[in-house]
Amino acid sequence: MDVAIVKYNAGNIYSVVNAMKRLGIEPVLTDDAEMLQKADRVLFPGQGQAREAMEYLKAHQLDQVIKNLKQPVLGICVGQQLLCRHSEEGDVDCIGIFDVDVKRFQPQKHEDKVPAMGWNEIYDLKTELYKGFGNRADAADAAMGEALQHPYSYFVHSYYVPLCEETIAKADYILPYSASLHKDNFYTCQFHPEKSGKVGEQILKNFLEIQK
After folding, report:
1. Candidates 84, 89, 189, 192; catalytic one
2. DSSP assigned state of 212
3. Which three-class secondary structure state does DSSP give residue 42?
4. pLDDT at 13
5. What confidence tens digit (pLDDT) does each residue in 102-112 have?
6. Is-catalytic flag, 84?
7. 186 Cβ contact list (under 8 Å, min separation 6)
8. Which residues, other chains included, contact 111 with Cβ-Cβ below 8 Å and sequence gap of 6+?
9. pLDDT tens digits along 106-142
10. Distance between CA 121 and CA 50 in Å, rounded?
11. pLDDT tens, 40-83?
12. Residue 129 and residue 210 in contact, taking contact as beta carbons nearer than 8 Å
């Protein structure tokens, strides 16, 4: 399987490269439009500032390349946010796959820290991306079964996507929000599956197995 990872001015890309290698995949890290279009799967990860990322993507015409991809695409962290309509981070228009605006967390009490950082449970899981979750029988061992029934993933973010029609996983921090989205061939995770242990590994496996 040919897996391409979008190369742009965002951090955290190499941890995703390493996660693919742990699954036996040698991904290609590229900003070449033809290579991205030809790949069987495309990963769009990132950490960084939304406005700076969008300026880079537009300058290299990668925003349109990503928008027109036909194979399964997985946006991770800032990658999820950049696939939305608009972000409050830098007040910038984004790629627009998902017709929803990215908001900044607003602390409601003293213990509400921004950015939200650490492990958090994801729930109300839908689509093939979460195949096997919630079903202990699908796991190879008891520990994995428990992880699938009560999946925790690793988050680091100051901005969130509100709940919407395309939400396929939820998480709670200050308020319920979209931990994951899906529309057509586009899937996303606000959390970092590449840093989320067995749960994240299963999600990445499921992504690779999604039928076009």
Report:
1. 192
2. -
3. strand
4. 87
5. 999 999 998 89
6. no
7. 73, 75, 83, 97, 98
8. none
9. 999 988 999 999 999 999 999 999 999 975 555 556 6
10. 25
11. 999 999 888 999 999 999 999 999 999 999 999 999 999 999 99
12. yes
Helix H or strand E segment including 168: strand 167-173
Backbone phi, psi, residue 143, to 5°: -65, -45
Say how many Å lie between the first and final Cα of the chain, rounded.
Answer: 13
Containing 208, the helix (H) or strand (E) segment is: helix 197-209
pLDDT, residue 142, reads 60
86 is catalytic: no
Whole-number Å distance between alpha carbons of 99 and 77: 17
pTM of the model: 0.93
Which of these, 76, 71, 96, 74, lies nearest to 85 by C-alpha position? Answer: 96
Catalytic member of 26, 77, 94, 121: 77
- Residue 138: the pLDDT is 53
Q: Is 55 a catalytic residue?
A: no
> What distance lies between CA 9 and its chain's CA centroid?
17
Q: Is 45 helix (H, G, I), strand (E, B) or coil?
A: coil
Would you state the structure tokens that stand for residue 198, as one six-digit string? 């067995």
Residue for token pair 């991205």: 36
Between the alpha carbon of residue 160 and those of residues 3, 100, 127, 131, the distances in Å are: 27, 11, 21, 24
Count of C-beta atoms within a 10 Å radius of residue 13: 21
Cα gap 57→95, rounded to integer Å: 9
Distance CA 71, CA 73 (A): 6
List 84, 89, 94, 194, catalytic entry: 194
